[in-house]
Design goal:
Order of helices and strands: EEEHEEHEHEEEEHHEH
Shape: globular
CATH superfamily: Spore Coat Polysaccharide Biosynthesis Protein SpsA, Chain A
Structural class: alpha/beta
Bound molecules: cytidine-5'-triphosphate, magnesium ion
CATH architecture: Alpha-Beta Complex
Largest sheet: 7 strands, mixed
Number of strands: 11
Strand content: 15-25%
């Protein structure tokens, strides 16, 4: 039987957030932001282990007490220059340490998506566990889309039909994802599915929700905090 593992790439610097501290450590409801995703993933009954991929130079991680997650959490200090490098390095390290089998499912989840719920996580796993390829949480694009010219004027309006916004977790088997990321190291892929797509596969889109957004800019942090506070005090 193949198992399910989560892998959280957390080696980014959060440049768009504009804070010296990488965004995964910014305070969110009195915890470093990354705590929230770790908590949801470690709590999940299907997930056998959670790999955290840190930048080799990261000292911030070790300032916190993570012992409540010690049964499932594995720290891998092998992050790379891009998100794809960090994921690939994490997959390779986990395999080298004999922690995963090539047939196991890996759910890659951004450290910067703190509002993932157990309900969505269960839904993703249930919808993909018998899938041949794997897939990802995503939401249909809601806004009207404009293509700009070089002067920031509307060149034309894009159809939003069949357009989705990719989220995470993105769930693929260890061997397929490793092969996909290895073969796309020269292309700038910003998620795992695009590497798998480049091999000619069609990842499945599983309907997520807007709460599972990625904290990218300062205003996103305040929004994530409101959502988590409301969940804790309904
Ligand atoms: N990430 C990573 N290794 C990198 C770059 C990104 O592990 N070299 C991780 C981030 O830590 C984050 C996830 O990939 O959990 C999604 O990336 P993003 O939101 O782009 O985070 P950053 O790259 O840190 O932010 P920015 O692009 O604004 O610098
Ligand atoms: Mg980035």
């Amino acid at each position: 039987m193949s198992k399910f593992f989560a892998l959280i790439p957390a080696a980014g610097s959060g440049s768009r957030m504009g804070n010296e501290l990488p965004k995964q450590y910014l305070s969110l409801n009195n915890r470093p932001m990354i705590y929230h995703a770790i908590h949801t993933l470690c709590q999940n009954q299907f997930i056998a282990g959670v790999f955290i991929v840190l930048a080799p130079s990261d000292t911030e991680w070790f300032k916190y007490d993570w012992s409540e997650f010690s049964e499932k959490l594995v720290v891998l200090s092998c992050g790379g220059l891009t998100r794809a490098d960090s994921v690939l390095n994490g997959l390779t390290a986990a395999k080298q340490k004999n922690l995963v089998d090539t047939n196991d499912w890996i759910l890659v989840h951004d450290a910067a998506r703190p509002c993932l719920t157990s309900i969505l996580l269960d839904k993703l796993i249930n919808e993909l566990a018998i899938d041949k390829v794997g897939g990802l949480l995503a939401v249909p694009v809601a806004d009207t889309l404009k293509r700009s010219n070089t002067e920031n004027r509307v060149a034309h309006t894009e159809s939003r039909e069949n357009l989705w916004q990719a989220q995470t977790p993105q769930m693929f088997r260890h061997d397929l994802l490793t092969q996909a990321l290895r073969s796309t190291t020269n292309i700038n892929v910003t998620d795992d599915a695009s590497a798998v797509e480049a091999l000619g596969f069609y990842p499945k889109l599983v309907l997520g929700d807007a709460y599972n957004f990625k904290v990218t800019y300062p205003q996103d942090l305040a929004l994530a905090e409101l959502i988590i506070q409301k969940r804790n005090n309904p």
